[in-house]
Amino acid sequence: MATIKKRFSNLSPQKIANLKVAALCFFAAATFWVLNALNKDNYTTVVEYPIEIVFDPEEFMPVEKLPNRINVEVNGNGWDLLRKYFKVNEAPFLIEINNPSTKNYILTSEIRRGLAESINPTNLVSMVTDTITFKIDKIVTRKIKVQIDTTATTLARNYRIAGDIELDPNIVNIKGPTSMLQKLDGTVSVLLGEDRINKNFNKILPIELSDELREFLTLEEESVHVKFDVYQMLEGNKRLKIKKLNFPNNVSLVEEPTIVMRYRIDERRVDELNNFEFEGVLNYYNRNRSDSTVAVQVNPKPSFLQNIEIEPSVLRLKYE
């Protein structure tokens, strides 16, 4: 660049003026040649021609972006082809489909005659694009079951839901294209919006769809009344009396330790424990012959006790 500037700086004003005239003449000649060329006919090129798929929007909805251009080979005047190439003032060719949900494509051969008339005076030579594909579903209304999203840790430690969760309504109507409704798999989940719940729940919550589905589906009911009670599982322990069954006279325990049963119990049923006398049962017939041990069995074992653990759970036998 410095070399060029140096050379031009060495030119006289007259030579610079002559160069400017020469450049203008070249530009004028090039412009004249281009204009003259564009005025000629019988040029052939491939252009992207705008299209618009037309259907009843009350009955159908596209679930993917619709194609808006197809490639066609055309022949005609240079100016006309230039406008088509740069898409200047080109109205889209309308393709009307009566029932697009039954067919996801159309052959361009089916629209060739209409397109040829639309692009007149340019001549249509050939259809470069042979198939126009689309995905348009029928709009329907379906009844969907409402359920609570239990994937998150919604309850506090050792808390349980008492009975059934009440939902009002438990069925909602959702309107939208069939393929998007199928993604719901018949249910829509509601987030409780709370973690570590440790008291009875009674709220009206919004029914929200994922970002993927929200633009396609419409809920007739946008909220649900959720109600349920909770209870706490209390941790407890008890000492067990040892009860031996079927022990021969020459068999005893190496030692008789204190056996402790640890458990969790529904807080509403704590008083029922007073109705039971718990024992640690050792049945000689159930011994492990390979290591001369016997496992401790709890008796009775009411169903309202959970997470029962016994320590020690196995005792060693001694033979005399």
Question: What's the layout of helices and strands?
Answer:
Blueprint: H1 2-9, H2 13-38, E1 43-54, E2 60-62, E3 69-76, H3 78-85, E4 93-96, E5 105-107, H4 112-118, E6 123-127, E7 131-133, E8 136-148, E9 159-168, E10 171-177, H5 178-182, E11 187-190, E12 201-206, H6 211-214, E13 218-219, E14 223-245, E15 251-253, E16 259-266, E17 279-283, E18 293-295, E19 297-299, E20 305-311, E21 314-319
Description:
The strands form 5 sheets. Strands 9, 12, 14, 16, 17, 19 and 20 form a 7-stranded mixed sheet that branches. Strands 2, 8, 10, 11 and 13 form a 5-stranded mixed sheet that branches. The protein has 320 residues and is α+β, with helices and mostly antiparallel strands. The longest helix is centred in the N-terminal third of the chain and has 26 residues, at 13-38. The chain folds into 3 domains: 43-134, no CATH class; 138-232, YbbR-like domain (RNA Polymerase Alpha Subunit, Chain A, domain 2), CATH 2.170.120; 233-319, RNA Polymerase Alpha Subunit, Chain A, domain 2. Helix content is 18%, strand content 43%. The protein has 6 helices and 21 strands.
Name the descriptors.
320 residues, alpha+beta, RNA Polymerase Alpha Subunit, Chain A, domain 2, 6 helices
CATH architecture group name of the largest domain:
Beta Complex
Residues in helices, as a percent range:
10-25%
Helix count, DSSP H or I runs of 4 or more residues: 6
Order of helices and strands: HHEEEHEEHEEEEEHEEHEEEEEEEEE
Our count of domains comes out at: 3
> DSSP strand (E) fraction?
35-45%
Shape descriptor reads elongated
Structural class by sheet pairing and helices? alpha+beta
CATH fold title of the largest domain: RNA Polymerase Alpha Subunit, Chain A, domain 2
Please tell me how large the radius of gyration is. 42 Å
